[in-house]
Amino acid sequence: MTLPGTLPPGQIETKRFPIVGERKPSGGIDDWRLRLHGLVGEEVELQLEEYLSLDHREFTFDIHCVTSWSRFDSRWTGVPLSELLVPSSEARYVSFSAFSNRNHHTSLPLNVAMASTWVAHEFEGIPLPVEHGGPVRVVTIGKYFYKSLKWVKSIEVLAEDRLGWWETNSSYHNNADPATGDQRFTSGSLRPSQLKRFLVAGSYDKYRGKVLLGLDLRSWRPASRDLRRLYLKNCDLGSLDLSGFDLRESNLSLSNLVGANLSHTNLSGSDLEGADFTEANLSGADLRGTALSATRFDNAIVDGARFEGAWGLVETQQAYLAGRGVTAP
Predict the structure, then answer these.
(1) Is the pLDDT of residue 187 over 90?
(2) Which of 38, 63, 113, 162 is at 20 to 30 A from 289, Cα to Cα?
(3) Residue 252, Cβ neighbours under 10 Å: how many?
């Protein structure tokens, strides 16, 4: 586990609280309720008023998002999970489910959950905003933040593990310990033969919207400039020439684009969280409406690049762009 106040490998510090993932729950929040069930002594369902009447207290911890930003000494108010659950002797895991359009859920070993998870409703002394999981979410100290579920609706105690949404759909590491820096993902998503076919493909229609993870694409010479909705997460695209390509609504989160030529490339609406554009050529590029939490632009060429509607930049990167005459959120 990372010691408090320590920046784990690959992380960048911010004093902001970037919004990640979905921004609102499925349905309204006025009828929020939390079900605690499974291998427990007694099933419980708490309405919001009942939850708010519990004995809450403040606690602080360092947030480490898998997209590579960290926020130290974040102050929360809530209740330890250990005070809400009485697991049975067969219990080994805890599964958390959300009021989410994509039915997000995640899991933890029982001993980790009971020692480190809180159910929380306030952040820095104010009610938790909806976009950050309000009215009530879970937070787990010492894990990447995808183990801390927004808009929690169900906490189920299990005998066997149930892999979560991110762990299943994006190969996020089930252990999620930031300390080592190598537990963001489990592995790549294509076998060598499949990667070879991707590298020589004449069209990318079959790959659109499918997460391709951890690929070495430095030798890639795309046959088509139409790369819309390609999800190339944690991939190595260092020094590639993608100038003038169409990468709208793509996902390049945590990918290496150091030294890449992206001059006049259309990246609008893309998820670029944690991507590294150090020394890249982004002159005239379209980055409108992009997610930029923990994205790096150090020594990048950004003349004429457009950032309207982008969000999530950490302070140092915002200052870098401003120093080059670029206005970015």
Answers:
(1) no
(2) 63
(3) 26
- pTM of the predicted model over 0.90: no
Paired with 57 in beta bridges are: 78
Residues in the chain: 329
**Per-residue pLDDT at 185 exceeds 90:** no
Which CATH code, of 3.40.50.2300, 3.90.950.10, 3.90.420.10, 3.40.470.10, is assigned to 12-169? Answer: 3.90.420.10
> What would be the CATH architecture of the domain defined by 188-329?
3 Solenoid (2.160)
Give me the pLDDT at residue 188, please: 65
Q: Where are the alpha helices (DSSP H) in the chain?
A: 48-52, 110-116, 165-169, 192-199, 315-322
Which string of DSSP letters, residue by residue, matches 17-73? ----S-SS-SS-STT-EEEEEESBSS-EEEEHHHHHTS--EEEEEEEE-TTSEEEEE
DSSP state of 308: T
Q: How far apart are CA 221 and CA 271, in angstroms?
A: 22
Domain layout of the chain by residue ranges: 12-169, 188-329
Report the distance separating Cα 197 and Cα 72, nearest Å: 43
Q: Measure the CA–CA gap between 327 and 329, rounded to whole angstroms.
A: 7
Q: Tokens for 211, please give them.
A: 């997460």
